[in-house]
Amino acid sequence: MNCEEVRDLLPAYVLGALDAGEMQAVEEHLRLGREHDGELVELRASVFALDRFADEESLSQASAPSQLGNPVLGRPRRIPPLAGWQVALAAAVLIAIFGAGWLTAGLTAKSGQGVHFLLQGSNGEVMTVSGESSDQFVTVTMRGFQQLASDRAYQIWAIRDGDWVRIGICNTNYEGGWKGEFPFSIHTGEQIALTVEPAGGSQTPTSEPLLISES
Amino acid sequence: MLITRLKEGDPAALRELYQQEERRARSLALRILGDAALAEDAVQEAFTQLWQRAEQITLEGGRIESLLMTIVRRRAVDLARRRQRGGQTLPDADLLREIDERASAMLDRVEEDLTTAGLRTALQSALAALPPEQREIVRQAYYGEATLSQIAAREGLPLGTVKSRLRLAMTKLTESMRTQESS
Predict the structure, then answer these.
(1) For chain A, how big is the Rg over CA atoms in Å?
(2) CA angle B149, B152, B157 (to 5 degrees)
(3) Spatial distance between the Cα atoms of B156 and B162, rounded to a whole number of angstroms
(4) Is CATH 1.10.10.10 correct for B90-183?
(5) In degrees to the nearest 10, what's the CA dihedral of A48, A51, A54, A60?
(6) Do A157 and A194 touch, CB atoms closer than 8 A?
(7) B114 touches chain A (CB under 8 A)
(8) How far is CA B21 from CA A12, A43, B12, B17, B157, in A?
(9) Which of B143, B92, B46, B132 is nearest to A60 (CA)?
(10) Hey, how many other C-beta atoms are within 10 angstroms of the C-beta on B6?
(11) Which of A18, A69, A128 sits opposite B44 (nearest CB)?
(12) Is B52 within 8 Å of chain A by CB?
């Protein structure tokens, strides 16, 4: 592939819209030198501008449906603005545990009926807990956690009016990740905590929390 | 600065960034994926990646918010492609790392000159000025819906026509950015 052919494909390349073979050929060419750097920078800046400022409306307006087929993914869903968006930023609570310097900290973000928690550890561990006050399920994602031995489990708690209420138990995979749902209705004003418990879980926490959000 | 605190491993810095950008990041991912659960995955992976690799970040004058949106978009499109097309991936991130840093810095300079609202208006004006057939190719390519070959097959157009439309559209967008930056 020569320079002219590569230049022709750069707009599609920066959007990731090339077939695998073309993608590979373009990248092989780009690794040979830096003569396309200037054009690439401008094209990528345009993509980043789209990331930041283009909404579905501005990309779709005046399109001609009769000329278009059905998108592979379907039409992206438009999200209404989140009215009354409020975020309560919690102060960090730092508790060192196990001598490994795990930290606990949390953030609660409320949007409409939704409640979202982000909890992070000092070694890259991140846990999110999301739910709707009106819903009976919460979604939990964990990444970067140590996989526990088979006789231990992570247990997730909600702290409600000072009481520790069980949400559920899980163990991460060998890559330190886990995602799942628990039947639980979460409310604003509650805290989220994570402890390590015996497999099967505990009625009340038996260890200090690894992570805990602020109220 | 937020980036300095992130690089130092300050957990409060990640929370501040999450507070500021989570809504916009989720909106971006949802636009690309059209699926709230997958969008949540993409956003969570992006924040995790940023947190875990904060020490290696070099912005060269760019903004952490721009880098975050880049990661979110990359993760979202990657998830979309894996779901729909069996593992096709985005351009090599390592190959584009320096390019992306310069691009982020360029966009930030334009934003400083124009203000955020001004840049948004400029971009949306440039998009509105595109012929509908060009804008539609941009839309499909941008949202990771299909490769150029797939768009051509779907639309019943020669591949060269699709390439040409995308090239013309992206050239207009970059020229708009260049004009804004030079002014």
Answers:
(1) 24
(2) 145
(3) 10
(4) yes
(5) 110
(6) yes
(7) no
(8) 28, 24, 14, 6, 39
(9) B132
(10) 22
(11) A128
(12) yes
Candidate from B27, B34, B146 with C-beta closest to A74? B34
Q: Is the complex ipTM higher than 0.85? A: no
> Which candidate, B108, B12, B38, B121, places its Cα nearest to that of B68?
B108
Check B166 against A62: CB less than 8 A apart.
no
**Number of other residues whose CB lies within 10 A of the CB of residue A7:** 15
Give Rg (Cα) of chain B: 17
Instruction: Give ranges for CATH 1.10.10.10 in chain B.
Output: 90-183
Supply angle C-alpha B150, B153, B159, rounded to 5.
85
Which pair of structure tokens corresponds to residue A116?
A: 């979202």
Interface test with chain A among B78, B139, B175, by most A beta carbons within 10 Å: B139
Q: Is the pTM of this model over 0.80?
A: no
Q: Is residue B18 within 8 angstroms of chain A, CB to CB?
A: yes
Helix (H, G, I), strand (E, B) or coil at B50: helix
Query: Which class is B1-88 in CATH?
Result: mainly alpha
Rounded Cα distance between B109 and B104, Å, is 9
Of B18, B28, B51, the CB nearest to A51: B28
Per-residue model confidence as pLDDT tens for chain B (183 residues) = 788 888 887 878 888 888 888 888 888 888 777 777 888 888 888 888 888 777 777 666 567 887 888 888 878 877 776 665 544 456 777 788 788 888 888 888 887 777 777 788 888 888 888 898 998 898 888 877 678 998 999 889 999 999 999 999 998 888 877 655 555
